[in-house]
Amino acid sequence: MSEVVNKAALAKETAGVLASLSTGQKNEALLVMAEALIREAPAIIAANSEDLERGRLGGTPESMLDRLALDVGRITSIAEGLRQIAELPDPIGDNLETIERPNGLFIEKIRVPLGVIGIIYEARPNVTVDAAGLCLKTGNAVVLRGGSSALSSNRKIIEVLHRALIETAIPSQALQLIEDPNRSSVDEMLKLNGLLDVIIPRGGSALIQNVVLNATVPVIETGAGICHTYLDASADREMALSISLNAKAQRPSVCNSMETLLVHRDFAAEHLLAVAEAFREIPVELRGCPETVARIPWALPVSNEDFATEYNDYILNIKIVGGLDEALQHIAEFSTRHSECIVTADAGNAERFLQEVDAAAVYHNASTRFTDGFEFGFGAEIGISTQKLHARGPMGLPALTSTKYKIHGSGQIRG
Amino acid sequence: MSEVVNKAALAKETAGVLASLSTGQKNEALLVMAEALIREAPAIIAANSEDLERGRLGGTPESMLDRLALDVGRITSIAEGLRQIAELPDPIGDNLETIERPNGLFIEKIRVPLGVIGIIYEARPNVTVDAAGLCLKTGNAVVLRGGSSALSSNRKIIEVLHRALIETAIPSQALQLIEDPNRSSVDEMLKLNGLLDVIIPRGGSALIQNVVLNATVPVIETGAGICHTYLDASADREMALSISLNAKAQRPSVCNSMETLLVHRDFAAEHLLAVAEAFREIPVELRGCPETVARIPWALPVSNEDFATEYNDYILNIKIVGGLDEALQHIAEFSTRHSECIVTADAGNAERFLQEVDAAAVYHNASTRFTDGFEFGFGAEIGISTQKLHARGPMGLPALTSTKYKIHGSGQIRG
């Protein structure tokens, strides 16, 4: 039996026990896990430095090494994340609906765990802990497959968490790490119907597309974000400026940052130069339509390929449009249906935009950067879904659950 | 461009209009569709007789011809189904959650259509109308791919519905029928990410498995039902008898009928013979474990393969077990997680069963045959989901929807 099948089967064996744990038992385990991480920080940092060393020798870029690196501060904040998960309400067992039928059947719709969740991600050891915590809080077993360049860190973290779980009501078997660094172990997970109930990919678009296109297990797609901000004719100049700057430059590397600014021709005539100058100061590279380039001498010409690119970087496309219809059309063509924003003082245009744009989150007069579990008040999230099935937008704990109908009768049969 | 891509693209073009239709507009269209079907019944029956003729010549079994056959009575009842869909509450636009954040962001979670739904099904022309009605009521465009042996019937039905829609607010383009009878048109639909938002297969397990294993578009699996009824030691004899007979024999061809009866050893000692005799009268063929065969001379020996088979027929497996644990173990091994029942007077055992059995619907003292949208009070259903993502159990109108976060701000940016 392969490592993947073996570990997924071990995880599945615990699903019944996990579904029956009390909230108190789960919270206690999360706190014990947090403590263990802090206590064992030196050992985790030592394992992490092996990964960093290997990465440096292999020529891994500095930005990726930074995502991989752990120190006491980062481990403390990862442990703090587990404590925050312990404080969130437990969705398992919630009664979502009660139906009393004329024949006396008493039907309850109850939240239950999904079962066994597979998480496929890159070389970010914090995801190992986050995913373990979120899955355990929702009574799910979890099979983790992290990037191979974080393998030493992940192994040590899982070792620490396993030892911690032994003191708790949660079987340590519920938490599995796939150590096989070959791509074939990912391929195997994708086809593990019957052992995995869902796979959630977390990472760049190549990783996500591989999962979406090859998995036979149901997937929750946490996709890329090509997000737009549309500055309408009536947009307030200061608001337009601050929302645009925030959406692009507060943290360009994340999925809810802006890639393309759409500007109403009238607004552009009066204010585009000022907006562009603010971006130049940061600096953000600008790529514009011909009309934009005519107004902003330092803007490069934009291509359709640029409009279809998630830069995750200090680069911004700008397109001048004739009005709301043209903005809607551009968004329908290029959006990845993540987060989209209109800045306007016109309530009618705002309503049309929020109604007609097909995206997980649609904003009127606020930055797209708010699409985030913490900002919505959900607490920690396992990712932001860009698909329409099951969960859409920031996925809090309920996104990691399913439901079950419990029916009580007194001998009812169907006529 | 292939027929599949072309028609899916035409359907997708209408998604925006469909999402904005009022409930009144959708209901009116459903009533106009119902009327048109009744008015055009003779033409539909004529087209249907072409399919039946081809089927007979090709040696199609009588039971399949019966599913395919339409007459005035059946068309009237199919039209009545559309009128019932018109009477159901419209889930689109429902506000599921309102969140006011400390920074003043006002977040609403709103029900929206899924977009474009692909339905892949067998030679049952009633599904053509049901699926069209349910999708249109939920503001979804739909691409239908029915069994090729019903092609003449489906073509005529869609022609009638298209002509009806022209009198309504719904663009007829929202309703597409794939006419290519080759299997390749199904394969093409399964990979149509970007044009189809979800695929729902309806039919036998071969059809469903093909969709689940080959689709890259998200799927809602409406799976097979290997359903169990467990008669506990304390089960009331009459209740046990009537629930068992109903679960097996009221309509054996459907997914929520019982395939295996698990019987506590003590109950078996006193009552199994009487239960078996009642099944013999119907008659239902019995296949039993060695202990069952010792008690019921006319029972054949059961195999593990039998336990893993959905008969959809007058055949029943019987296994005598030592108690609840053994029953739970057998169900965990062989259940398809559809509908499972315990008959018992012991409240503790009932609660353990409802808690521990992992299935869409778990019953205490009622027949598994109730797992059905109408019986749950949801009205018409597009199928019964046996997966855990998005929808589980009978899928009413909300299962054909997604959600969207609408956010109103006043210039908020992220710090």
UniProtKB/TrEMBL annotation, chains A, B:
<feature type="domain" description="Aldehyde dehydrogenase">
    <location>
        <begin position="72"/>
        <end position="285"/>
    </location>
</feature>
<keyword id="KW-0963">Cytoplasm</keyword>
<protein>
    <recommendedName>
        <fullName>Gamma-glutamyl phosphate reductase</fullName>
        <ecNumber>1.2.1.41</ecNumber>
    </recommendedName>
</protein>
<dbReference type="InterPro" id="IPR016163">
    <property type="entry name" value="Ald_DH_C"/>
</dbReference>
<dbReference type="InterPro" id="IPR020593">
    <property type="entry name" value="G-glutamylP_reductase_CS"/>
</dbReference>
<dbReference type="InterPro" id="IPR000965">
    <property type="entry name" value="GPR_dom"/>
</dbReference>
<dbReference type="Pfam" id="PF00171">
    <property type="entry name" value="Aldedh"/>
</dbReference>
<comment type="pathway">
    <text>Amino-acid biosynthesis; L-proline biosynthesis; L-glutamate 5-semialdehyde from L-glutamate: step 2/2.</text>
</comment>
<dbReference type="InterPro" id="IPR015590">
    <property type="entry name" value="Aldehyde_DH_dom"/>
</dbReference>
<dbReference type="InterPro" id="IPR012134">
    <property type="entry name" value="Glu-5-SA_DH"/>
</dbReference>
<dbReference type="InterPro" id="IPR016161">
    <property type="entry name" value="Ald_DH/histidinol_DH"/>
</dbReference>
<keyword id="KW-0641">Proline biosynthesis</keyword>
<keyword id="KW-0560">Oxidoreductase</keyword>
<keyword id="KW-0028">Amino-acid biosynthesis</keyword>
<dbReference type="InterPro" id="IPR016162">
    <property type="entry name" value="Ald_DH_N"/>
</dbReference>
<comment type="function">
    <text>Catalyzes the NADPH-dependent reduction of L-glutamate 5-phosphate into L-glutamate 5-semialdehyde and phosphate. The product spontaneously undergoes cyclization to form 1-pyrroline-5-carboxylate.</text>
</comment>
<keyword id="KW-0521">NADP</keyword>
<comment type="similarity">
    <text>Belongs to the gamma-glutamyl phosphate reductase family.</text>
</comment>
